[in-house]
Amino acid sequence: MNAIPQSADKTEAITRMLQLWREGDKEALDRLIRVMHKDLLQIARHFMRGERVGHSLQATALVNEAYLRLFDNKQINWHDRTHFLAVSAMLMRRILVDHARKKNYQKRGGDMVKVPWDTGLVVSDERGPDLEALDDALEVLEKMDPRKAKVVEMKFFGGMTVEETAAALKVSPDTVMRDWRLAKAWLSRELKKT
Questions:
Q1: Cα–Cα distance, 168 to 24 (Å, whole number)
Q2: CA 10 to chain centre
Q3: Domain annotation covers residue 140
Q4: How confident is the model over 94-114, as a mean pLDDT?
Q5: Which of 35, 96, 147, 192 is least buried, going by the fewest C-beta atoms within 10 A?
Q6: Is 114 exposed, middle or buried (0-12, 13-18, 19+ CB in 10 A)?
Q7: 23 lies in which domain range?
């Protein structure tokens, strides 16, 4: 097992763990998750703030599910801490969207036998944006302008700062802010259509 020197700063150590994991060190991801757990939990909590009260997924479960998906995906060419957080945020978004789609499928009856509306009346206390509609709009934006979609993913879903987003995308903070403003306006218009 390759040891990380104690004198290396956290960012360098994280980058090295990512490299070791990519090179086949099976314990590197476990070490990485331990080091990054607080950051991942912060991203998950950011996501969960937009969800309804009583959501069946909790922030810790979201981090665990992201970990499982990361563990299964060894094809990513990791760059650094920011890249790891951006990919983790994207995975958490996918998990929440998949969860919402599954819940909505179940609400629409899934494989169940339909009953008259007055017999099966259900009251919901859901609030917040429609995650499925937002995800669909983001997919359209990604086809039109992938960088703007990444900015939304990193800032809105990942809770990353302008500087972290700029570093991950290798653009200036001014470019991130411009993309952010344009993407928000475009998404707002698209979501009003639904």
A1: 24
A2: 22
A3: no
A4: 64
A5: 192
A6: exposed
A7: 9-80
